[in-house]
Amino acid sequence: MISTVAGSSVGRATSVTLSQIAPDYHSGGILVSMGVTSLYEKYHASRQDERLGLFESVCAEFAINRGLYPGCFVHVTPSFVIPEMYYVDADGNANKFFADGVARELVERNRVYDDSPFLQFHFQDYQRPIPIDDGHVGLLISQYAGFVSENCKRYLSQGGYLIANNSHGDAGLASCDPEFRLVAVVNRRGERWSLGTGNLSDYFIPKSRTVPQEPSDLADHIRDLGKGIAYTRTASDYVFEKV
Ligand SMILES: C[S@@+](CC[C@H](N)C(=O)[O-])C[C@H]1O[C@@H](n2cnc3c(N)ncnc32)[C@H](O)[C@@H]1O
Prior knowledge:
Helix content is about 25%, strand content about 25%. A 9-stranded mixed sheet has the order 1-4-3-2-5-6-9-7-8. It has helices spanning about 35-45, 50-60, 80, 90-100, 100-110, 150, 170-175, 215-225, and strands at about 5, 65-70, 85-90, 120-125, 135-140, 155-165, 180-190, 190-195, 235-240. It has about 240 residues and is of the alpha/beta class. The two termini are about 30 Å apart.
């Protein structure tokens, strides 16, 4: 089933079909339309910040068919390579972007797989229960949207993967969580993304000697700070396995 679902936090959901896509949205080329359509262009394409290589490199290394992206805003790039994606955001413009069918049209034009894409959007706070079964997804995505890992790990299958950056401290928080094990790092150089699995013990060593040493205390410290701390060696993104 192909559907874009825009539901409120009380559970209302709307299915949107291709015929409902905004009439000013013309096909061919990359985004050139008005209104919410331009949000992807504005925030991702025009800034060379689609991060497609991140998702390509992780999917090439690990078998992933189904993912969840809390705090996605309009960043639907994961759906270009992952056939079944669930998105969550509390922002009204994100809701409109998905409800208007813009997101699915964009994915239809850029997907690299044969299957019809499945996208589902939940318009809500990701800290509240998301109507997805526990353990349903094989990938959880955390990008510049707070502490996604601890709030949403219940939806990730055992053996599933978390992609997190450390902008808001979420990768650091995951590194303190006994349910997560670092299995790869991903680095960006221009438009090239490279995944590495060597020397992983070099990461998440705090630069400061005054931060708490115990993982649970360090996690509290990061939560209190609400952002990442400095480490001796860093990567653009980190991949953790849920153990
Ligand atoms: C800085 S934007 C990042 C968007 C996207 N992840 C990216 O990397 O381009 C942060 C987004 O997270 C959303 N967000 C933050 N906390 C949230 C929460 N608790 N529930 C739902 N959405 C949240 C905001 O609404 C916003 O759209």
